[in-house]
Amino acid sequence: MSSQRFYTGDEQGLIKAVTITELPPVKVKRRKRNAEPVEPPAKPVPTVETWGVPDREKAIQLMCWDHDKKHLVVARKNGVIQLVDPKDGAPVTEFKQTLAKVDKVDTIFVGLFANSESIITCTNTGTLTVQSIQDRSKSSTLSVGKDICRMRVHPREHHVVATAGKEQELTIWDLGVLLKGPETPKKGKGKSKKESKAPVEEKNGAPYKSKEILANGQIFKAKNVKNDHLDLRVPVWNTDLQFLNQFDITRIAVGTRHHQIRVYDTKGARRPAVDAEVGTMPVVALANGKDASEVVFSDTVTNVYSVDTLTGAILGQYKGFTGVATAMATFTPFEDSTTTHLVTVAMDRCLRVHEMDKTRRLLHKVYLKQRMTAVVVGEFAPYEAPEDEDETGLSARKTSGGSDDENDDDLWESMGKLEDKKLKKRKISKE
Amino acid sequence: MVEINTIKNKLKREELYQKQKSAKAKHKRDRRTALQKEESSNPEKKEKRLAENVPNTLENTREFDETIVEEDEEVAADEATDEFAEYFQNGLAPKILITTSKGPSASVYEFATELVDIFPNTHFVKRKAQFEMRHIIEFSKNRDFTDIMVINEDRKEPNALTLIHLPNGPTAHFKLSSIALSKDIEGHGRTSSHKPELILNNFNTRLGHTIGRMFTSLFPHVPEFQGRQVATLHNQRDFIFFRRHRYMFKNSKRVNLQELGPRFTLKLKWLQKGTFDRKGEHEWMFKPEMETSRRKFFL
């Protein structure tokens, strides 16, 4: 039995670890090909572990992994950011930020990211905080403008931060430049090469022709789309954004409250490369698709759609939602397979896993009793087949290298293995 | 036994058919009288038969729903601090504002009058076209209202009811149908101004709990029992039936019911987190595609 783990956060401040166990689909397929009468595998029973005491003041707003998936990082309503052990839910460290009400509006976290050294958070008032994990006193605060709706950090280039919000165009910041002065931020060990890349790109001359000078630390600032057919300004209200590519920072998808999906190419123009109207209701959350050509978004009337980032066309809908999907994540369930799955948590108190192929099939649905706000994809425990050692070895190796921060060697190695496998298959077919 | 439909003579065929039919009826009658006789001497047998013979209905063959709430600490903790905690925990008395959609017609006013009669401490406010819902919500919050009811109409008939709990939501939108005003109910009683008792039936799922709590928080905590008025919200197959009765003690054993009216039926269309906002996030929303079976219910 292979099992996939998810961690969810909810309005009551509980963290739930959901383990979904199932038979590997690869095995089932093989049996089908042999045309043996196979009973449908028994529906796996998900196990749910609940950590924490219900308290609305500690409502979880955002969750993510830290550098090498050692700890879960949890941002709560009361301003506490916790590092939580994913095995038993015990809080390891805590950092406190004061979230004061501004104009009767609660200050909430809109972005959370952690690497080996620091936790980067952002609030809707535009306070970007870089908090060192080792050194409590070492933290720096920056202002990135008010009414920010989402802050995301590039999964590989940890110094590249994108923000967007209400009347806040998509802006990409270089933390390295922003934080320059009293302290020089140093991100991940093997990152120095890449780190130098982006500033160089910036120095090589802004790729766009506008004469507007970027503020200190800004790499890119988007420009509003052209006026509409009545020559009226189009209002800006970006609700969520995603870096489309793991390897470069240039393509970013943005969802808006005015039901548009926009794709910016920072190498090209400041205006979006793709600007598509999708549906009639505001975009709530945005997730990457199985590759850079697809994004998944949810709207306020409980729809979840898949959108082509090249054309802006809706590719299909994920069915089965009765409440708004508040957080989504894409993952590869079986490291050696090509399928991707979409995990969502929704206001209808359910966690759902969909397959991201043409069928967009609902694979699992787990009732979690709370209105969920955050989801994080956890460990994948592979199926241990005693007779097929090769495969388990392969998948195990890949699991270990599955983290965001795997080094290049690992990546190349795994790609090599895939080729081997194809060759094998071909050989078999020839025989 | 002759195959009746093979007989070619119509008279003969009819005669035989009638004979067969009456024999069948007699057999049934005999069986039932025998059973009755047996059971009158042995009432336990009757009880046993009735207990065993439960016909299948859509309700008792309901599809399994994991969200049905039974003794659950987590849900209890959730409900202890939810949006209705002010009513349930702190004993805040309800104060309700009833209004209509813009430009209402006479039937809506009539229905609104009935609603005002049902819920104690209710204020009807005529809807003015210059105020949007967000303004009304703001005004009501400032005036310490706990709930807003908005009656919507279509073709001069009330067709939807929106319930907004203040100050932090949620908002529920119901389809409104089968309205019978008090005056249309034959033999209806006259209402008194006593605070009514409340009966809520079958709000079992997690969503149903929320809806049930929402309705509960519309009524005062302690009813005035001398009024002997009961308001019932009965959920059956996701339709919520509203009825209002007065009970009258005929003697020490028997009770009579007198209907007071009105009658109407509600069906939940969506539940929104927070106060009404057209672009707000929906906690639950009905979609036709969710109706995968006649035996699946959400409340």
Task: Describe the model.
The complex is a heterodimer of chains A (431) and B (299). Chain A is built from five helices and 28 strands. By secondary structure, chain A is mainly beta. Chain A is globular. Chain B is elongated. Chain B has helices at 10-41, 43-52, 73-80, 85-88, 106-118, 133-142, 206-216; strands at residues 96-100, 122-124, 147-154, 157-165, 171-180, 197-201, 229-236, 239-249, 255-259, 263-272, 282-285. The model of chain B has no long low-confidence stretch (mean pLDDT 93). The termini of chain B are far apart. Chain B contains seven helices and eleven strands. At the A-B interface, loops of A face helix 3 and strand 11 of B.
What's a quick, concise take on this entry?
The complex is a heterodimer of chains A (431) and B (299). Chain A has 431 residues and is mainly beta.
Write the layout of secondary structure elements.
The complex is a heterodimer of chains A (431) and B (299).
Chain A: E1 2-10, E2 15-22, H1 25-33, E3 47-51, E4 60-65, E5 72-76, E6 80-84, E7 91-96, E8 109-114, E9 118-123, E10 127-132, E11 139-143, E12 148-153, E13 160-165, E14 168-174, H2 175-178, H3 192-203, E15 218-221, E16 238-243, E17 251-256, E18 260-265, E19 274-277, E20 283-288, E21 294-299, E22 304-308, E23 314-318, E24 325-331, E25 341-346, E26 350-355, E27 362-367, E28 372-381, H4 389-400, H5 408-430
Antiparallel strand pairs in A: 1-2, 1-28, 2-3, 4-5, 5-6, 6-7, 8-9, 9-10, 10-11, 12-13, 13-14, 14-15, 16-17, 17-18, 18-19, 20-21, 21-22, 22-23, 24-25, 25-26, 26-27
Chain B: H1 10-41, H2 43-52, H3 73-80, H4 85-88, E1 96-100, H5 106-118, E2 122-124, H6 133-142, E3 147-154, E4 157-165, E5 171-180, E6 197-201, H7 206-216, E7 229-236, E8 239-249, E9 255-259, E10 263-272, E11 282-285
Helix pairs in contact in B: 1-2
Domain Brix (chain B): 94-277
InterPro entries (chain B): Brix (IPR007109), IMP4/RPF1 (IPR044281)
GO molecular function (chain B): rRNA primary transcript binding
